[in-house]
User: Which sequence fits this backbone?
């Protein structure tokens, strides 16, 4: 990476090394770091509140599967439905058939809104399985989710994907694998916003370990998806069909999450709610 003519040129190889058909990507490391750091912080929270590590291990499996399955299906259904409706197996298989031969593709295409939906479903299933209150889990899990999201966006930066619109600002980045145009580093904008949201939620939790049920969850939904909605204005549309839309798919999908967040923030707590937690 080097600065030329007042902009930053980015042309790093997203693959760290390859062994045969296997390649280790920076994105994979960022994705792994997201789960490891989240696990460490959640363990601190669980120990603080007298919950077992075994319960956290169970939750981690649910969240990992919910995130991966939700993000994958979200991309296929929200952004490339026309293609995947004709190739449904490619939604769940990391390869495709080309001229009668298998071609390893990995899971290229993950949507954060799909991942959010997957996590919520996973939390609901986990709460039913373990008899743990849904809002108790959600209020604590959302503390670390923004930090995990920051790692994922850093991985997007390494992949030179989810690029920003052209800009003349001095911090503009030329993603040479895409074109030679200086663009907003939208991935880094999101990563920074998510770190700030993590700090806010972590601070709120430390000052009040027993807020109104669903309150932190609501704050998270409003802040994270509000940031996502605003930052979409700095990003290129991911799919061509979005070019004719006033608000792109990412913004439209963010609105319901923000509405639910506002409801959770301003709703009146149930009588005796705190005693049940």
Assistant:
């Amino acid at each position: 990476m080097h600065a030329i003519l007042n902009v930053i040129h980015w042309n790093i190889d997203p693959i760290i090394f390859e062994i045969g058909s296997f390649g280790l990507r920076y994105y994979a490391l960022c994705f792994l770091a997201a789960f490891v750091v989240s696990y460490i912080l959640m363990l601190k929270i669980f120990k603080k509140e007298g919950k077992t590590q075994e319960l956290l291990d169970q939750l981690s499996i649910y969240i990992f599967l919910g995130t991966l399955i939700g993000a994958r299906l979200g991309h296929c259904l929200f952004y490339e439905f026309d293609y995947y409706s004709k190739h449904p197996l490619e939604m769940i298989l990391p390869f495709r058939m080309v001229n009668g031969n298998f071609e390893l593709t990995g899971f290229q295409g993950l949507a954060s809104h799909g991942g959010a939906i997957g996590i919520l479903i996973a939390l609901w299933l986990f709460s039913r399985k373990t008899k743990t209150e849904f809002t108790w889990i959600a209020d604590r899990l959302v503390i670390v989710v923004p930090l995990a999201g920051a790692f994922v966006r850093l991985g997007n930066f390494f992949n030179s994907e989810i690029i920003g619109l052209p800009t003349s600002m001095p911090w503009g980045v030329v993603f040479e694998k895409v074109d030679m145009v200086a663009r907003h580093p939208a991935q880094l904008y999101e990563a920074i916003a998510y770190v700030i949201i993590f700090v806010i939620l972590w601070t709120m939790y430390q000052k009040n370990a027993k807020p109104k049920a669903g309150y932190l969850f609501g704050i998270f939904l409003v802040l994270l998806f509000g940031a996502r909605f605003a930052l979409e204005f700095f990003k290129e549309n991911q799919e061509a069909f979005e070019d004719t839309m006033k608000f792109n798919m990412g913004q439209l999908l963010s609105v319901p999450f923000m509405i639910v967040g506002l409801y959770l923030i301003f709703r009146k707590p149930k009588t005796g709610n705190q005693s049940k937690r």
Q: What stands out?
A: Residues 53-78 form the longest helix (26 residues). The chain has one domain: 2-276. The longest strand covers residues 15-19.
